[in-house]
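Hi R.,

Here's the chain you asked about this morning:
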Amino acid sequence: MKLKIIDIAHHRNGICGSPFDVILFQDHGDEGSRKVGIVFESTSHVAVLDVSKLAEGDIAFASNSWRGDKYEPHLRKAIALRQRAIEAEMTGDDNLDDLNHEAINERNQTTTPNHDIDIDALLADREQIALIWSIEDVQEVRPDLTDKQAWEVLQQVKSEHDATLGVNWVTLEWAAQDLFGDAPT
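And here is the predicted structure, written out as C-alpha cells:
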C-alpha cells in the first residue's frame, strides 16, 4: 500500500462520544486519490472516503466507500508514530530523533508513489545491472536490529563494498557485527 500521510488530528468527540482520529492522506495505489480516514479506538472501526467525492456531495455506499480494513493497519501505525513523537517531545525524550527517523522510514516504506518506473529497462538501456538489498534482508541475519540500525548496516556495506566479496548474507552479518557487536543469543 502506497500512502502519503498529509495530516492527522485527534478528536475527543464531545464528553461522552467515542474519540477518533482523522487522517488526510494521498493514496498512490490502484485506487489513488486523496482520502480521509476516520479511525476509532476500537479495532475494525475505520471509515475511508475520497475527498473529491465528498466535496461533490457524494457519500453513497459503493460510490464513495473504501475498505477500512485494507487501510487500517497503515493508518493506525501512522497514528501510533505521531502519538509517540508527541509524547517524546513533551517529555524531552532523547529518542525523539529515533522516532522521527522511524516515521520517515515508515513514510518511505508506505508512501513512496509508484510511478511505474521499470528499473530493469533503465539499467538495460545503460547496459548495467543492480542487485537490491533491503533492511528486511539485514534483519533476516540480525532480527535484533531496528530499521534504523539495519539501514546503517546497508550504508556501511555500500561504503566498504569489496567487489571480490560482493554483497551477501555474510557481508551483511559482518557489517552488523562491526557496528552493533555480536547478535544476542
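One quick note: The longest helix spans residues 68-91.

Cheers,
M.
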